[in-house]
Amino acid sequence: MINSLTARIFAIFWLTLALVLMLVLMVPKLDSRQLTPLLDSEQRQGIMLQQHVEAELAGDPANDLMWWRRLFRSIDKWAPPGQRLILVTSEGRVIGAQRNEMQVIRNFIGQSDNSDHPQKKKYGRVELVGPFPVRDGEDNYQLYQIRPAGNSQSDFISLMFDRPLLLLIVTMLISIPLLLWLAWSLAKPARKLKHAADEVARGNLRQHPELEAGPQEFLATGVSFNQMVSALERMVNAQQRLLSDISHELRTPLTRLQLATALMRRKHGEGHELARIETEAQRLDSMINDLLVLSRNQHKNELTREYVTASDLWSDVLDDAKFEAEQMGKNLQITAPPENWMLVCNPAALDSALENVVRNALRYSNQQISVAFTADQLGVTITVDDDGPGVSAEDREQIFRPFYRTDEARDRASGGSGLGLAIVEKAVEQHHGWVKAEDSPLGGLRLVMWLPLQHRRQATGVESK
């Protein structure tokens, strides 16, 4: 077994080339129309016909004016049933041949003209045999026999043997399945590597032992790939541990700050400064929570998924949003409510995604918010509009980045940690959907989310982890 990919490709190339050349050179020798020696029985039959014709000519007096008729009568009389005999004079005249046979006969005469070694050759559906010497006094003739060819090869095979280029093309076509199989087997390790790389791109950081097999080049690549995946997994785990540790360390002083604020309120009563300190502490705590959620979602390989209808999934979110809009004195309209469209999803992730988008619209709208759900055979589209200040065209791609804030939202009094839309984008991508920002007909920002619909027969392989 050749373990080097370079040596394997080199060997396959020369093996294929040698096979093609061998076929091109050897196959014509299998042509049934080649000149072949006579069998003993055929030799005896030819000699017997020769003797009969000579005897017939000896008993028929010669006539200078009608000499060719005398020759024709003798060969016609002794021709076996279903066969014909022809005589060729020393000057090259052919007696007994039909006009349409002359080219074939001339070709055979040119190849087989030695009466000491008569031969035979097939021409399509006929076979020529000879020559046998015939003596007629002082004249010498050559006797040939034309008979039906037994087991004649097809016209296509004959044409292929007559045209070497066509034979080469047929040989190459026959070798194509072998070459395709060889190419497939050589590319198989590359396909495995691509599949493993796609899984890493989707965040599934697991090793692939099957990559560490095959040719040496791919084996070394597979070992390096698995080492890279292990290093990435260690880095991700270290990052998550770091974030968890930072969260723990930050929450300790936050708890103390909130406790100190409560003690000061008890001692000195309510105050503007204490309210501001408490608000900022709560925002910092919320920001830490959002950052941890985003970090977990970015490196989570698989989400727990289950069957749920769109109406059941988002009904509570919409009810809470309506209540919150009423408390804020704003108008939230659901122009097209969700229906019983079947989704295979992580309910908590998509529930949080819609909640973030709607709360974002409530926060920045002036008065009007609109939510609409539509569906087709492929997926569900969710559109959330508001009449707020909107987002400039150059900022629409950036608002999904963590901590990115537009000019209109830089004032911390507007609320939010700058992580909500980043969490939304990651959750939607994990469900193979997309989210984008556009201008809203209400004058503000429109956020559009698309999620694929999946039928039960398409999702039978979904695992709950």
Automatic annotation (TrEMBL):
Stored SMART domains: HAMP, HATPase_c, HisKA
Gene Ontology molecular function: ATP binding; hydrolase activity; phosphorelay sensor kinase activity
Transmembrane segments: 6-27, 165-184
Gene3D superfamilies linked: 1.10.287.130, Histidine kinase-like ATPase, C-terminal domain, Two-component sensor protein CpxA, periplasmic domain
Domain HAMP: 184-237
UniProt domain Histidine kinase: residue ranges: 245-455
EC number from the UniProt entry: 2.7.13.3
Location of the protein in the cell: Cell membrane
Assigned GO CC terms: plasma membrane
Enzymatic class: transferase
Membrane topology reported for the UniProt record: Multi-pass membrane protein
Keywords: ATP-binding, Cell membrane, Hydrolase, Kinase, Membrane, Nucleotide-binding, Phosphoprotein, Transferase, Transmembrane, Transmembrane helix, Two-component regulatory system
Catalysed reactions, as listed in the record: ATP + protein L-histidine = ADP + protein N-phospho-L-histidine
This protein's name: histidine kinase
Source organism phylogeny: Bacteria, Pseudomonadati, Pseudomonadota, Gammaproteobacteria, Enterobacterales
Gene encoding the protein: cpxA
